[in-house]
Amino acid sequence: MSAHILLTLPILFPALGVALCALFWSNKPVQRIVSLVASVGLLGSALALTAAVYDGTVLATSFGNWDAPFGIVFVADMFAAAMVLITGIMAVAIGIYGLNGDIEPRENAFYHLLYQGLLLGVTGAFLTGDIFNLYVWFEIMLISSFGLLALGGTRAQLDAGIKYVTLNLIATTFFLITVAFLYGITGTLNMADLARVLPTLENQGLVTTLAVMFLMAFGSKAAVFPLFYWLPAAYHTASAPIVAIFAALLTKVGVYAIIRTFTLLFDGDAGYTGPIVAGIAIFTMVTGVLGAAAHFDIRRILSFHIISQIGYMLFGIAVATPLAVGGSILYVIHHIIVKANLFLIAGVIERAGGSFDLKKLGGLYASLPMLGVLFLIPALSLAGLPPLSGFWSKFTVIKASLDANHIALAVSGLLVGLLTLYSMLKIWNEAFWKAAPASSAEPLRAWQADRKTRLLMLTPIVALAAITLTIGLFAEPFVDFSMRAGAQLLDKTSYIDAVFGPSQNITEVNP
Amino acid sequence: MEPVFAIAFGVMVAVAAYLLMSRNVLRIVLGLLVLGNAANLSIFTAGRLESRVPPLVPAGEAALAGGANPLPQALILTAIVISFALVAFTVVLFESAHRRLGTLDADAMREAEPLPQATTKKSRKVEESA
Fold it and tell me: Which chain A residues are Cβ-neighbours of B85 within 8 angstroms?
């Protein structure tokens, strides 16, 4: 297949999903089928895309008969393709889980439309090679997430929505202003062109200022310290499938944007930004994990752990060696699967135990031992215990930081891992091990009686746990892929050549 | 002309920051609106204010000479549409929150993150006013 088709299909499927869901807005069964087919299509096209870039080629294409740097380009290197693939996996897994009835009363309120819109925005943000276009995809992703968050219309959701919407709008507007300044000093918005132009500018001080502004704008999206307040204020109010897709994708788009801009555009002054990012990473890890330790609601514990894990993903930019960047990529991939799975399991715990509050839960290991095992796989992987996926990704980033003499970063990474284990064991002790409270008999009976819901909810969980185990036990291909992707990110020439070089892709597009 | 626009941009951002720090959510919406327009102004200024000639290629010629820079205008058009949609959504969200929560004070909105029992000064005040 040509690069144009490969790069367009992952966008096309969710876009068609949005359009068809809008068309059949009153027909629940049709919307469900459309949404699932679109998600499967996204996964399939993402697989094809990843297969095409697996050997290290970078695919690029431009739209609308405008060649780069004037038209909008889409670019897929190994990192971008891997992120699209993981988006596809999440889209299908959480799409199936979402049929469990959690959002049934609101399904007609455009749930499927917004779900596909979120996937559209996320995929577009991963694939675009144009910084203003990235802003547009961010907005598509945001407006969909606003809708999904406020879908239930409960008091808590409206309250959470106000904080989420306000803080995110400020962050994207700040991003837009930064893009304007970047355009003002370079005269271009194409990222490959920017990568060529930025090092040649006379005023490098202004470039560093812009780098820090981008760090703030994307850092706010990625929920890094001290810009994370919207996340713990909002995530725990949404229902399980919605918060799972948020946890899997939203903050990771911010991380992706940070890694992309700081490897492609602003790698000139790593001596200046490196220590800043390292400090941010340490504070992010520590505040996140301490926040989690304070809470007794499973969703709030897991929300704070998203923040603490974001810190590890910044190791790549803080240390800026190929090993560290590769480790960050591996960490993002591992984390998306594990974190989404934990939120899906939290949904099952709520169904079978009747609450998200650890104080009202108990005895789940006695009644549902398999659920306990399914919980332990992602939970221990999140804490970084061997032989699960979290061990390899933590090992890589911490080894990279030790190699580069970032001792404080490595030590806090290890300590935060320990505290993560504490939080996971708290959930285990309270929800699974302590004696069951009297109130939990009724939900358990309902759970055991409803075979169809069980199947819908547990199938994605088992599948995601299997992926976690696969990454853990057969780590070599995944580590190898991440390392090559990291090396590709640091070597900007392949990206720039793909966009501007004597590429057949562009001529193919414009017959 | 650029310095005037740059100062206007700075003033608008300052106004937006002041409004956004208000406790009244209605002022927050206005702050978002002003901030969005400040962003549009910054794009416009960044595209240089050299010419007032519309960027239209005259009939019979291949290239444009001395027209205004069309790209910032295209970007602003996109940004205006997006910010219009987002602010419209925000207004609806804030309005329904006002109806359900019965307050416009952002500090009193503690539904999603309740304070641990009424021990702090602020929560007592909230209770008294309720």
Answer: 143
